[in-house]
């Protein structure tokens, strides 16, 4: 039997709630407090094996090994960019690969994590969009990416992780339950204890799920990958727009903000001679002015599957000047990790398992 098959036969202990874990351990003959100790090892101490749980009796650790698996994510490959960005290929328990990135800047250390193996949305400028979606990640597989990238930040640069962005492979809102559960595990005092205000979830724009975030009164920030502010152009590059129009998205974002008062960011990649004119900037302003938001203009990162080219510097200057003249908050984001295909839109799980 293969190692993967053996792991699949064992119960995934991190799928259990604390109460479920406690009941199983009591049935095994352990005292109730033992479940709290095991839970702390799993989530607060991020233990990668049952044998590492030092204060758990050997007989209990043997029972855990016989009946359960932690299904830990492993680092299969790691590349370091000239700008210190680190891209990791993460191997899941079933052999699938996803990618995550540590983005170091002067102000912050950011982990960019994936939420799906592949993606079903087929955005034409994104490398992940040319992959088939294999499956959703479990909440603990997202959590593990954060832990591994956090450890990279400490080991390589001696600086703690400050921010997390769900901007890697996949559409987070199509893995809604596991994404929210992962954030709960990351922000819980019994988990990594990070502030939800330091977490941003990015979506290609699924209106009903954005409203659901509002109904669930989430505490984290939301980013919309907009990239065009008229439906004709957005349909061309993001087919999801055909069923989630700009009118529907504007309404959903307003609903989200009214329910949560959480920060909204509009992400806008500028493509040469496609969405980079002052008229395009005017359309973006018309969309953005209805919302309390900021705008991130993002440098395009070429991929082999597409022919898009980054906008010219002059077009970028005129575009941002127009938005700033309308009192919009605009940030121009320069690519990081481009030389190792770690930049926005370039993640594609290239290493073979």
TrEMBL record:
One GO molecular-function entry: metal ion binding
GO biological processes: rRNA base methylation; tRNA methylation
Residues engaged in binding S-adenosyl-L-methionine: 170-171, 202, 225-227, 301
Cofactor note: Binds 1 [4Fe-4S] cluster. The cluster is coordinated with 3 cysteines and an exchangeable S-adenosyl-L-methionine.
A Gene Ontology term for the protein's cellular component: cytoplasm
Protein name (database record): Probable dual-specificity RNA methyltransferase RlmN
SUPFAM superfamilies linked to this entry: Radical SAM enzymes
Chief location of this protein within or outside the cell: cytoplasm
Catalytic reactions on record: adenosine(37) in tRNA + 2 reduced [2Fe-2S]-[ferredoxin] + 2 S-adenosyl-L-methionine = 2-methyladenosine(37) in tRNA + 5'-deoxyadenosine + L-methionine + 2 oxidized [2Fe-2S]-[ferredoxin] + S-adenosyl-L-homocysteine; adenosine(2503) in 23S rRNA + 2 reduced [2Fe-2S]-[ferredoxin] + 2 S-adenosyl-L-methionine = 2-methyladenosine(2503) in 23S rRNA + 5'-deoxyadenosine + L-methionine + 2 oxidized [2Fe-2S]-[ferredoxin] + S-adenosyl-L-homocysteine
Pfam families registered for this protein in UniProt: Radical_SAM, RlmN_N
Binding, [4Fe-4S] cluster: 119, 123, 126
Cofactor(s) for this UniProt protein: [4Fe-4S] cluster
Top EC group: transferase
Catalytic residues, chain numbering: 99, 344
Alphabetic keyword roster: 4Fe-4S, Cytoplasm, Disulfide bond, Iron, Iron-sulfur, Metal-binding, Methyltransferase, rRNA processing, S-adenosyl-L-methionine, Transferase, tRNA processing
Source species, domain of life: Bacteria
Family: Belongs to the radical SAM superfamily. RlmN family.
Role description: Specifically methylates position 2 of adenine 2503 in 23S rRNA and position 2 of adenine 37 in tRNAs.
EC number: 2.1.1.192
């Amino acid at each position: 039997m293969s190692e993967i098959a053996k792991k699949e036969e064992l119960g995934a202990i991190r799928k259990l709630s604390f109460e479920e874990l406690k009941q199983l351990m009591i049935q095994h003959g352990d005292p109730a407090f033992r479940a709290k100790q095991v839970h702390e090892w799993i989530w607060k101490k991020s233990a990668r094996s049952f044998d590492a749980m030092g204060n758990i009796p050997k007989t209990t650790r043997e029972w855990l090994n016989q009946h359960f698996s932690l299904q830990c994510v492993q680092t299969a490959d790691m590349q370091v960019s000239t700008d210190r960005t680190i891209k990791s290929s993460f191997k899941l328990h079933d052999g699938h690969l996803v990618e995550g990135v540590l983005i170091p800047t002067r102000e912050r250390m950011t982990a960019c994590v994936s939420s799906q193996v592949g993606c079903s949305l087929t955005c034409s400028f994104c490398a992940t969009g040319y992959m088939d979606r294999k499956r959703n990640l479990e909440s603990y597989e997202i959590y593990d990416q954060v832990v591994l990238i956090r450890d990279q930040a400490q080991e390589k640069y001696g600086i703690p992780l400050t921010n997390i962005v769900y901007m890697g492979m996949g559409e987070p809102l199509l893995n809604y339950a596991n994404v929210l559960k992962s954030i709960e595990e990351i922000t819980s005092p019994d988990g990594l204890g990070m502030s939800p205000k330091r977490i941003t979830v990015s979506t290609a724009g699924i209106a009903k799920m954005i409203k659901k975030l509002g109904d669930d009164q989430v505490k984290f920030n939301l980013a919309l990958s907009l990239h065009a502010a008229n439906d004709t152009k957005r349909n061309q590059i993001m087919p999801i727009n055909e069923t989630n129009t700009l009118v529907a998205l504007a309404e959903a974002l307003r609903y989200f903000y009214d329910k949560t008062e959480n920060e909204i960011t509009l992400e806008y990649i500028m493509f040469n001679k496609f969405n980079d004119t002052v008229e395009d900037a005017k359309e973006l302003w018309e969309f953005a002015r209805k919302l309390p938001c900021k705008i991130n203009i993002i440098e395009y990162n070429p991929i082999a599957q597409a022919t898009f080219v980054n906008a010219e510097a002059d077009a970028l200057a005129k575009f941002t000047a127009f938005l700033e003249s309308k009192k919009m908050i605009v940030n121009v984001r320069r690519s990081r990790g481009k030389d190792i295909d770690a930049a926005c839109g370039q993640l594609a799980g290239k290493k073979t398992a």
